[in-house]
Design brief:
Blueprint: H1 9-19, E1 33-35, E2 38-40, E3 46-49, H2 52-55, H3 64-76, H4 90-101, E4 105-109, H5 112-131, E5 139-143, H6 152-156, H7 161-164, E6 174-177, H8 182-188, E7 193-198, H9 214-224, E8 228-232, E9 256-259, E10 271-275, H10 277-280, H11 296-311, H12 314-331, E11 337-343, E12 346-351, H13 359-367, E13 370-371, E14 373-375, E15 379-382, H14 390-404
Parallel strand pairs: 3-13, 5-6, 5-7, 7-8, 8-9
Antiparallel strand pairs: 1-2, 2-3, 4-10, 9-10, 11-12, 12-15, 14-15
The chain binds pyridoxal-5'-phosphate (PLP).
Pyridoxal-5'-phosphate binds near residues 113, 203 and 260.
């Protein structure tokens, strides 16, 4: 067995490549340990992580409070009870999520994709039982450029061929419309429309922010047509955009939230679906479930991780540090930058077409000690842990400027 004490980064890369399915194309960096915004490889090199596991690590690596809570729960000797029985931690976690979201019922699951799948089931059953949509006719409206996970149903309504190709036949009942286009949405509504499933900002789509007022208008149209507004805030929620939820920027109250990623601070998969009772009550005993969903270790970890977001006021930090970072990023005079799109600490730098794609810039940033990942070929995403300090941002800006100007790789 390889261990970091004796093996190099390259040995770990080779081992993964030899035995793993090749469904990712990682940057050639091996992370052995982390602290705050920093990670180290087995060769002793230090990097600043500006991806933060797609915003799962908003609280930073090795957060002492979450680490302690996890340790205590493991020491207590109970990590999984299944929902066949109650446990002494799940209720506390559900209560906190209810307080944060303002929804009175919370469904615990594990991954983000499971939360999305659960929401789809919730919306369909609500449509049949409460709205009176004819059996098997429910339609859910989704949006071009969406990313909601990787199950067969979810990739079936993706507009990205690389997510879909070869995985059909797909689940019917979804209608794709242009993101940001109100008229297209209104045209797509029928009497069988039960819900919209939307990301307030399309993060995987390339940090795409819809026009101001769009989401508020969507909320209004949903109310008028008795359609559930289901918000996938798995990446944008929990502080990332400078508010607890990205929808708060437009004062929108969704009927359903999906949360995952940062809800457990990078410790283990925990996700939730939240809604008010008149929607959630369509889930009855036996109609939905998950073996690990609501497990006591996950409940303890996520309770602490969510408490850290609240008590360290990470949404405000994201707003302040994001403004500082983006303000300075915009001052960099680079021929390679086409556009910068940002909300809070969710930042996309779109690279000019003529200058190739974003990947070589990410590789050059890695050489300087900054880990960032391209999204949708042409966009560099900067989304560091929200505990980042101004000094750390200055350190990053200096190197980003070098890569985007002097030493541009293409
Ligand atoms: C990451 C993500 C998901 C899927 O979460 P997994 O835990 O990877 O299944 C769904 N929606 C959005 C917006 C995401 O960013």
């Amino acid at each position: 067995m390889l261990t970091a004490a004796t093996a190099t980064s390259q040995a770990f890369i080779d081992l993964e490549a030899k035995y793993g399915a090749h469904n990712y194309h990682p940057l050639p960096i091996v992370i052995e340990r982390g602290q705050g915004v920093w990670v180290w490889d087995p060769d002793g090199n230090r990097y600043m992580d500006c991806l933060a596991a797609y915003s799962a690590l908003n609280q930073g690596y090795n957060h002492p409070r979450i680490m302690e809570a996890a340790r205590k729960q493991i020491d207590a000797g109970i990590t999984l009870t299944s929902r066949a029985f109650y446990n002494t931690h799940l209720g506390n976690f559900l209560k906190l999520v209810s307080e944060v979201t303002g929804h009175d019922r919370v469904l615990p699951m594990n991954t983000g994709a499971e939360a999305v799948e659960s929401s789809i089931k919730l919306a369909r059953r609500w449509g049949y039982w409460k709205k009176g949509v004819p059996h098997d006719k429910a339609e859910i409206i989704v949006f071009d450029g969406n990313f909601h996970g990787r199950t067969t149903t979810i990739v079936g309504f993706s507009s990205d061929d690389s997510y879909r190709d070869g995985f059909g036949p797909f689940t019917p009942g979804f209608k794709l419309v242009e993101f940001g286009d109100l008229e297209a949405f209104e045209k797509a509504i029928t009497e069988n429309t039960v819900a919209i499933l939307i990301e307030p900002i399309q993060a995987e789509g390339g940090i795409l922010i819809p026009p101001r007022g769009y989401l508020k208008a969507m909320e209004q149209i949903c109310r008028e047509n008795n359609i559930l507004f289901m918000a996938d805030e798995i990446q944008t929620g929990l502080g990332r955009t400078g508010k607890m939820f990205a929808l708060e920027h437009e004062n929108v109250r969704p009927d359903v939230f999906m949360l995952a990623k940062a809800i457990s601070g990078g410790f283990m998969p925990v996700s939730v679906v939240t809604a008010n009772e008149e929607v959630m009550e369509v889930f009855t005993p036996g109609s939905h479930g998950s073996t690990y969903g609501g497990n006591p270790l996950g409940a303890v970890v996520a309770h602490e991780a969510l408490s850290v977001i609240i008590e360290e006021n990470l949404p405000r930090r994201a707003a302040e540090m994001g403004e500082y970072f983006v303000g300075n990023l915009r001052r960099i005079d680079s021929p390679h930058v086409k556009e910068i799109r940002a909300r809070g600490m969710l930042v996309g730098v779109e690279i000019n077409g003529e200058n190739g794609n974003a990947r070589p810039f990410c590789e050059a940033l890695k050489e300087k000690g900054i880990l960032a990942k391209e999204t949708h070929e042409s966009v560099i995403r900067f989304a560091p842990p929200l505990v980042i300090t101004q000094d750390e941002i200055d350190w990053a800006l200096e190197r980003i400027e070098q890569v985007l100007t002097v030493e541009a790789p293409v």
